[in-house]
Design goal:
The protein has about 325 residues and is mainly beta. The chain is built from 2 helices and 17 strands. The termini are close together. This is Type IX secretion system PorP/SprF family membrane protein.
Length: about 325
């Protein structure tokens, strides 16, 4: 909810500024070897002709988010030319003895559909490095013949992601497929003088369907219900149901339910036209709650070249 760019490359360049985000997630706190994720992402528009032109005024956010009916969005407003978007993301995941580091570059084109509605189509590609550090494993039989004389295995794998994002000031609908191109990759032992077993890993595609609606209650309050559905081979289908409330474009809080996994509380603040903060806490609902103290995630956002000093994002909420 705090950085949809990570799962859909079509979002590249959706806002009027350079959108930089860095995040840290500590999942299942106090559970040995539980996932820890770090990331930095940035994306920006190129040739965006409909950038905010009302200038920096105290009421700019209210001017921008004037209520429009869906029929007005599709019929009433004049079209503007499309624009491009580019981005980059660096992600590092640590799960037990496994580490996955990736760097990805993205491109998207935002096509006017009708009125204030646009369709963005994008793709991204990059390289992922997988590694297994056996010094972080506790084995039942020591030495274990399966990993004898092996301290670390690693593999490099290219991949591509594809996505589409239909959006306006009142709704969004996104579809993306990540980790495409190759399924299997071979781990290599850096100690070439030692004969070891052949290690093969599998990277399954991830499919995401997202949707949300922005309901403007009055000049001070906005309510945003949304959902995310994820499908991965060899795993049950997962879905999130979310609700977010925004007060005067400055403060927001929300709640989320992830099916059979967690109940989540979220809050954030748009400090200025330069920086914003978001935090979430997951209360584990699965059997892991007997060992876990929940999950923490924090995201820091930076808005560079925000020439009209917009405090609240206008297309990603």
């Amino acid at each position: 909810m705090m950085n949809s760019y990570l799962i859909n490359p079509a979002i590249s360049g959706i806002e009027d500024y350079v959108d930089i985000k860095t995040g840290y997630r500590n999942q299942w706190t106090d559970f040995p070897g539980a996932p820890v994720t770090y990331y930095v992402s940035a994306n920006m528009p190129i040739g965006k002709p409909d950038r905010t032109s009302t200038g920096a005024t105290p009421n700019i956010s209210k001017t921008i988010r004037r209520p429009l009916s869906l029929s007005t969005e599709f019929r009433g407003a004049p079209r503007v030319p499309g624009h491009h978007g580019v981005g980059i993301a660096i992600v590092s995941d640590h799960v037990g003895a496994n580490t996955q580091n990736s760097i990805t570059a993205s491109y998207a084109y935002h096509i006017p559909v009708s009125g204030n509605v646009k369709l963005a189509i994008g793709g991204s590609g990059g390289i992922t490095q997988y590694s297994v550090d056996f010094s972080n494993l506790q084995v039942r039989d020591n030495p274990d013949q399966a990993i004898v004389d092996v301290s670390k295995l690693s593999a490099m794998q290219p991949y591509i992601n594809l996505g589409a994002w239909l959006y306006s000031r009142h709704f969004f609908l996104g579809l993306s497929a990540n980790q495409l191109l190759f399924d299997n990759y071979n781990y290599e032992n850096p100690n070439k003088s030692v004969s070891t077993y052949s290690w093969i890993g599998t990277a399954y595609p991830h499919y995401f369907l997202t949707a949300g609606y922005r309901a403007e209650i009055n000049e001070d309050w906005v309510i945003i219900p949304s959902t995310l559905i994820k499908r991965v081979n060899q795993a049950p289908m997962s879905f999130d149901i979310n609700l977010k409330a925004v007060h005067k474009d400055r403060f927001w809080f929300g709640a989320s339910y992830r099916h059979k996994d967690a109940a989540v509380g979220l809050l954030g603040v748009n400090i200025s036209s330069f920086i914003n903060l978001g935090y979430s806490y997951d209360y584990t609902l699965s059997d892991l709650r007997e060992r876990s103290k929940g999950s923490h995630e924090i995201v820091v956002g930076i808005m560079l070249n925000n020439r009209h000093r917009i405090v609240c994002p206008q297309n990603l909420w």
